Amino acid sequence: MNIFETIVVQATGISADNPLVGVLSPRCDILELSEYSHDASLRPRRPGGLSHSERAGLAYRIAKRNNETALMLHYNQLFGVDSQTLADISFDGGDDARLKAIIRHTDLVTINPKAAVIEDVAALPVAGLDNADIVQLSELIAFVSYQARVVAGLRLMAVVA
Amino acid sequence: MSEPIRSFTTAVPYWRPRITPLDIEEASDEQLEAMKVTTSNTKIGEFTLVLALDPETLLHFTPLINGIMSGQGGLSRPETELGAVSASVVNRSIYCAAAHSNQYNQLTKDDAVIDSIFSSGEAADISPRQKALLLFSSKLSKCPSEATKADVERLSDNGLDMDEVLDLVFAASLFSWVNRLSHVLGDPLAQS
Questions:
Q1: In A, which residues are within 8 Å of B154 by CB distance?
Q2: In this complex, how many residue pairs, one in chain A and one in chain B, have their CB atoms less than 8 Å apart?
Q3: Cβ–Cβ of A37/B179 closer than 8 Å?
Q4: Could you give the CA distance from residue A42 to residue A40 in angstroms, rounded to a whole number?
Q5: What is the CATH number of domain B8-192?
Q6: Cα–Cα dist B169/B40, whole Å
Q7: Is B69 at the interface with chain A, CB within 8 A?
């Protein structure tokens, strides 16, 4: 995989003549595994209780909470039917108990993971998520949190390199 | 039921899952592959058994952790561990902070750096290079937009090459991922 085919490198906006390219190329393996992780979290073969379009909406929401505009644009491209609703940070799920629980958990773990207590996890099955859904939601939140930091870090490096 | 540990420690706790882990007897071939189960390796930790409920993600997660933490890149192993500890302190992931501070102390034979970070956080009394690593990793962990060009320049001024900075970016970012799993999906308990 060429490093410029990866979402994180594309999101940094660096050009092929940036000195950072020579630093990134030897760690292409990490960028490639990050790309596979993206696909597994956003477009899994078996999405279980979270559709691909819901995942894209949540990923946009997480990118927005992290002030990561380039990733917001990327996730916007993956939007499907239900994405916009979940992406809107002024929407808390309204009277839909399932969406409300998913959004609450996503915002909590994105912004303030240290505050997540056992009761927060226990609230998810009540809203209709099974254990596999809970792990998939957790992985999605955690992956986009990772990705946003890699992109921000690389972008700062590109300025200094 | 015993109470979770609330203070930072270098003694690695037992991780008690908040949801029921996969029963290894019922694992699919895909789940076994994701857990890297071989006949010589049948003792699987509960953290892995919980993550195996999402085998598509776990399949790439384990090699990613190994690739970032093994010290194959520019940054030394202890300094990679310091990046992991810095993120885990910000996120108050007691389990990850313990596991990686323990690694750091074993590698360096020096407990003073971790003691100071655990007691004083970003005000820790450590070397300028260690401080630069700690501050950059902490800001990136809190919110990525908090880290600035000046933080990267401080790393550079303290002798880090760009390949070392890259590994620090990977390590600190990785723990924004790992902490969100370990801290949210389980509780740290004292080992009996």
A1: none
A2: 155
A3: no
A4: 6
A5: 1.20.1290.10
A6: 34
A7: no
Q: Enumerate the β-bridge partners of residue B186.
A: B17
- For an interface test with B, the pick among A140, A149, A155 (most B C-beta atoms closer than 10 Å) comes out as A149
Which residues, at least 6 apart from B101, have a Cβ–Cβ distance to it below 8 Å?
B8, B10, B81, B85, B114, B117, B118
DSSP, res B16: E
Query: CB of B30 within 8 Å of any CB in chain A?
Result: no
Cα distance between residue B158 and residue B150, in whole Å = 12
Q: Is B70 in CB contact (< 8 Å) with chain A?
A: no
Q: What's the token pair of residue B117?
A: 């970070």
Write down all domains in chain A, each with its CATH number in brackets. Answer: 3-160 (1.20.1290.10)
DSSP state of A113: G
Q: Do B141 and A40 touch (CB under 8 A)?
A: no
What is the ipTM score, two decimals? 0.97
Q: Do B18 and A121 touch (CB under 8 A)?
A: yes
**pLDDT at residue B38, as a whole number:** 62
Per-residue pLDDT of chain B (192 residues; tens, 9 = 90+): 589 999 999 999 999 999 999 999 999 999 999 998 765 666 789 999 999 999 999 999 999 999 999 877 789 999 999 999 999 999 999 999 999 999 999 999 999 999 999 999 999 999 999 999 999 999 999 999 999 999 999 999 999 999 999 999 999 999 999 999 999 999 999 987
Q: Give domain limits for chain B.
A: 8-192
